[in-house]
Write a structure and sequence with these properties.
The complex is a heterodimer of chains A (about 325) and B (about 525). By secondary structure, chain A is an all-alpha fold. In chain A, about 70% of the residues lie in helices and about 0% in strands. The termini of chain A are far apart. By secondary structure, chain B is mainly α. Classes of the chains: A mainly alpha (about 325), B mainly alpha (about 525). Bound molecules: fe (ii) ion (FE2) (2 copies). One fe (ii) ion (FE2) binds next to loops of chain B. Chain A: This is Phenol hydroxylase. Chain A: Keywords: Monooxygenase, Oxidoreductase. Chain A: InterPro entries: Ferritin-like_SF, MP_mOase_hydro, Phenol_Hydrox, RNR-like.
Chain lengths: ~325, ~525
């Protein structure tokens, strides 16, 4: 016989785990984000040093120049633990699927003006390689950074960028075919317009400081690329030329950037607020890499913007500077 | 003219290829060896990363959709279980000690697996293995978190789990699973894949994960059972990855075979030693047993593993020779382990107890060659002593094996009356081992294993007392100080189950549901 236990009213001995209680200041009910994040990474009494990097512990805060008294100061404003993350992305992919269906079923790809389709394919398809590079860089930050509060969002980001590379691939296949993808890769490898960006991405692969890599990839490069390509060129410029179906196909990227930049900003803000030293390091990274990224993106932007390139790029950089100033780092 | 109509549809395999491999390129602005610096030093030769067969083809959109569906179901079961005081439905409060063992010993390893696969995924130059590893990395953080979430409600009502992260990094026996994963993640990326991807996920998973899940199912623990079943389809992917890794490495170059064979030997033994904890869980800690450790070993390793190694014979891989040793230990392993934990119950984060008469009979029937002869008399003696108020707690610290870090409790293969000791002199120090296999592992990489953080040594060196402790003061109680360092509360988290707060509370709370009081 099943006894009805719901009627039993018992007083719990405690409301959460001790490590969580210590961090939230009291023994009170904690969220799934908190219980699934705080102190998840081991911190003490490691048995062996990595044979691949014996100068460091398995997890080692000294891998980065950024210094934090407590690495769990970093909190994800989206409160993403795995379950919350997957639920959010599943919803977005449903929208993306509906958008792809809509464009496909109504043959909207065929209604695109030739010039818009050409521009989209030239501009967008090589960007699948940039997203693939970001997949690798975010895996790197996840693997080598310290504290789950900071490392965790990077594995989600890594998988997101793989997803984005795959959505771009689908756009390429929908508006073109397999040869379109090959042509995009050829341009990525050979065309002058792409070499600055490819060099930027390959240079980021050898960065050793995980926090710097976060800044370079997720704050700077994406911070310029997404507003430029998705928010301005596709949603704005091409849409006004009859390219609205393309904006539907890249809605995932637009929404994704709006969401993830809140986390990137919060992360920069927390690190900068920690100390003047952190702020100075962040200022230097942001400035140096912003200038390199803006220069690398210029010939790419020209594919779609022609004469207006410098003007638009200038605006995007201005916006980026304002964003960073709001996060506490004036550049 | 509509170009769309003429377009050729891609097959599944081609489509997956453009979604993954097609994204990769050969860099020219930075050197490959600077981008992938850890890929050569283990001596594994890979000539063609494109020969990698994708073990499963899952694009991210499908992954999110499928996983979100599983998460929705899992958390709705957990919520209902919590709201309905489901914890009072477990067979008996002794069962909760299995949950404690799992949360402090196993869940933190899921987290290390998450970071380890992120590392391996980052370091492999082939896009196929990278995608598969990163997908496993994100799955593993899922496992770590769903386990913490599933156990969260137990922690509210029962002792021993309240500071499990802290415990994992410190408590003496938890250095066994911790050092196992530390060993794997500090190895090179190929060895990591063989240790965790193949040996752990493929060869040993049915002996580790499955007993906990079926133990939960048998004992009314809906929470653990649900996350266990929910993780199963992830595990299926991980197993195919583990097998593909092995085949891929072996097919790439004949020089890889002896290296892989050594890793398989090492990690089968390392993994088996960690399974000591599972063996005693199965034979002693589950109020309602699923099967004995010995049966489990025979089915999942001797039969299934035997078939696997037959299959790998075409690559020149043979059954690790430690299998013979393990076969000799299978009548003894769980009993020797439980006796040890019974001894050291004062310093542990879960309770132990002596089996009752029925349980002894069950053990005798499952272990006809060993139980009545070697272990029953010992238990009956301890039980008598406990009845007289002399419950035995061993306060002398044991010698540990330098490699597996288990106390030197195991007997000579073939002679259950004699403790097995091995030792090695290295750079002026003496190192001790539980077996030839642990000794051999040390001898191959002494510089690695001399680093081991051995809990007993650390206690004797004074490194396991709270900050500011003065061990020279009169009446200093080392055990009390160590418990403080562990964040364990004496009398609540430790000692015998008989008389514990868990026992008392569970009885009282269940009584409220079944009686009119
Ligand atoms: Fe797992
Ligand atoms: Fe050992």
């Amino acid at each position: 016989m099943q006894i009805d236990l719901r009627t039993v009213s018992i007083k719990p001995l405690r409301h959460t785990f001790d490590n969580v209680a210590r961090r939230i200041g009291a023994d009170k009910p904690a969220s799934r984000y908190q219980e699934g994040t705080l102190d998840m990474q081991q911190t003490a009494n490691f048995h062996y040093r990595p044979t691949w990097a014996p100068e460091y512990d398995i997890y080692d805060a000294s891998r980065t120049a950024i210094k934090m008294a407590d690495w769990y100061a970093f909190k994800d404003p989206r409160q993403f633990y795995y379950g919350a993350y997957c639920l959010a992305r599943a919803k977005q992919q449903e929208t993306a699927e509906a958008n792809f269906d809509f464009v496909e079923n109504r043959g909207l790809a065929g209604t695109l003006p030739e010039s818009v389709r050409d521009t989209v394919l030239k501009l967008l398809v090589p960007l699948r390689h940039v997203a693939w590079g970001s997949n690798m860089n975010n895996a790197s930050v996840c693997a080598y950074s310290y504290g789950t509060g900071f490392s965790q969002p990077h594995i989600y980001h890594s998988m997101d960028q793989l997803g984005i590379a795959q959505y771009i691939t689908r756009v390429g296949l929908l508006l073109g075919d397999v040869q379109t993808l090959d042509e995009g890769k050829r341009a990525w490898m050979e065309d002058d317009a792409w070499q600055g960006l490819r060099r930027f991405v390959e240079d980021s692969f050898v960065l050793q400081d995980p926090f710097e890599l976060f800044v370079v990839q997720n704050v700077v490069l994406d911070g310029l690329l997404y507003p430029l390509v998705y928010e301005t060129i596709i949603d704005d410029v091409l849409s006004s030329q009859g390219g609205t179906p393309v904006a539907m196909l890249t809605q995932f990227m637009t929404d994704w950037f709006t969401e993830t930049k809140k986390w990137a900003d919060a992360t920069v803000k927390i690190a900068a607020a920690e100390s003047a030293e952190n702020k100075a390091i962040l200022g230097k990274w942001l400035t140096d890499w912003r200038d390199r990224a803006a220069a690398a993106l210029l010939p790419v932007a020209r594919i779609a913007l022609g004469d207006r390139t410098d003007e638009v790029m200038g605006e995007v950089v201005q916006q980026f500077n304002a964003r960073m100033a709001k996060a506490g780092v004036a550049i | 003219m509509d170009m769309q109509v003429a377009k050729k549809k891609l097959g599944l395999k081609e489509r997956y290829a453009v979604m993954t491999r097609g994204l990769d390129w050969t860099p020219s602005y930075q050197k490959m060896e600077d981008i992938y610096p850890y890929i050569a030093y283990e001596g594994i030769k890979i000539h063609d990363w494109d020969k990698w067969e994708d073990p499963f083809r899952l694009t991210m959109d499908a992954y999110w959709k499928y996983q979100a569906e599983k998460e929705r179901k899992l958390y709705s079961v957990l919520d209902a279980y919590t709201q309905g005081n489901g914890h009072l439905n477990v067979t008996d409060a002794r069962y909760l000690n299995t949950v404690k063992l799992f949360l402090s010993g196993i869940s933190p390893l899921e987290y290390v697996a998450h970071r380890g696969f992120a590392h391996a995924g980052r370091q492999f130059p082939g896009p196929g293995p990278r995608v598969a590893c990163l997908m496993q990395s994100v799955d593993e953080i899922r496992h770590a978190q769903t386990q913490v979430h599933a156990v969260s409600n137990y922690n509210k009502y029962y002792n021993g789990m309240h500071d499990f992260h802290h415990a994992h990094d410190r408590v003496w026996f938890l250095s066994v699973p911790k050092s196992f994963f530390d060993d794997a993640i500090t190895a090179g990326p190929f060895e990591f894949m063989v240790s965790i991807g193949f040996s752990f996920e493929y060869v040993l998973t049915n002996l580790l994960f499955v007993p906990f899940v079926s133990g939960a199912a048998y004992n009314g623990d809906m929470a653990a059972m649900t996350f266990g079943f929910s993780a199963q389809s992830d595990e299926a992917r991980h197993m195919t990855l583990g097998l593909e890794v092995i085949k891929f490495i072996l097919e790439q170059d004949p020089d890889n075979v002896p290296i892989v064979q050594r890793w398989i030997n090492k990690w089968t033994w390392r993994g088996y030693r960690v399974l000591t904890l599972v063996a005693m869980m199965m034979d002693y800690m589950l109020p309602k047993r699923t099967m004995s450790w010995k049966e489990s070993w025979e089915i999942y390793f001797e039969e299934n593993g035997g078939a696997l190694f037959k299959d790998l014979a075409r690559y020149g891989i043979t059954m690790p020779k430690c299998a013979e040793h393990i076969a000799l230990e299978k009548d003894h392993l769980s009993h020797q382990a439980w006796s040890t934990f019974y001894n050291y119950a004062a310093a542990s984060n879960f309770h132990t107890w002596m089996p009752d008469e029925d349980e002894m009979d069950w053990l005798a029937s499952k272990y006809p060659n060993s139980f009545d002869k070697h272990y029953r008399p010992r238990y009956e003696f301890w039980r008598e002593q406990a009845a007289k108020g002399n419950r035995f707690y061993n306060k002398t610290l044991p010698m540990l094996c330098q490699t597996c870090q288990i106390p030197m409790i195991f007997t000579e293969p073939g002679d259950p009356t004699k403790i097995c000791y091995r030792e090695v002199d290295y750079k002026g120090d003496k190192y001790h081992f539980c077996s030839d296999h642990c000794k051999e592992i040390f001898e191959y990489e002494p510089e690695k294993y001399v680093q081991a953080w051995l809990p007993v040594h650390q206690i004797y060196q004074g490194n396991c007392f709270p900050e500011g402790t003065d061990p020279t003061v009169e009446g200093f109680d080392p055990l009390a100080a160590v418990l403080k360092y562990y964040h364990l509360e004496n009398g609540r988290d430790n000692l015998d189950f008989e008389g514990s707060e868990d026992q008392k509370n569970f009885a009282e709370w269940r009584g409220q549901a079944t009686k009119n009081i």
